[in-house]
Amino acid sequence: MTPASSxxxxxxxxxxxxxxxxxxxxxxxxxxxxxxxxxxxLDCENCFxxxxxxxxxxDELKVINESRLEVNFKKGEIIYKQGTxxxxxxxxxxxxxKTYIEGPNGRNLILIYTRNTDLNGGVGLFLDQRHHSSLMAxxxxxxxxxxxxxxxxxxxxxxxxxxDYLRGQSQRNLHILxxxxxxxxxxxxxxxxxxxxxxxxxFFNKGPIINIPKQDFAELTAMSKESTIRVLKEFKDxxxxxxxxxxxxxxxxxxxKSIANHG
Length: 263
Known about the structure:
Blueprint: H1 3-10, H2 24-38, H3 58-66, E1 69-73, E2 78-80, E3 88-94, E4 97-102, E5 108-114, E6 119-120, E7 134-137, E8 141-147, H4 148-155, H5 159-185, H6 188-203, E9 209-210, H7 214-221, H8 225-237, E10 241-244, E11 247-250, H9 253-262
Antiparallel strand pairs: 1-8, 2-7, 3-6, 3-8, 4-5, 4-7, 9-11, 10-11
Helix pairs in contact: 3-4, 6-9, 7-8
């Protein structure tokens, strides 16, 4: 090989220029800013369905908006888990979620299903900053995560906002107390009848209950899945409900109410 040909082999096949660098921090800031301009607490109709946010001024809504996040979850995904730190409170704008206690041996107890106007995750907010229950997406869900530090900075200067928040939490806690009364004082038929009425009235506009698995009814009523299926089949055979896969329609509401009241 001649010296000339060796020199040619050492030369790169293209001209090397100064490397082009991307300012990742600047890029992320612009993406976040675009997000905030597109989704703003000041004109979000979802949050104003909660009486809570009607107590906030424009400046206070800006504080909430500055640190919030919107996240989509698929059916069956965990939104937050029992035992983890509370960093955000969660509103489900669209979809259905369930709050449950994780028990031993994989047995869970569903405390409450979440409505679009519920603010979730605050049980340990004033205690140990930990979640004492889990929240799961029952259907595909669109959620808004509200930073707890922003939340605190607002309620410390707005007693009406704090009182309404505590009122909402008290209503949820009252439902949970009634749920424990149901579980401890009624037989299986009574528990199931009341649960069917509760689900139909509160989440399906008194229509058919859809896309709720039998396991969820078991965890709502503290029964085994086998007992749940047996009781539902009895209700179906007696003409109280119509039932198919992930579909339950109440046919004789008055009879179910009677079973719920006397079960």
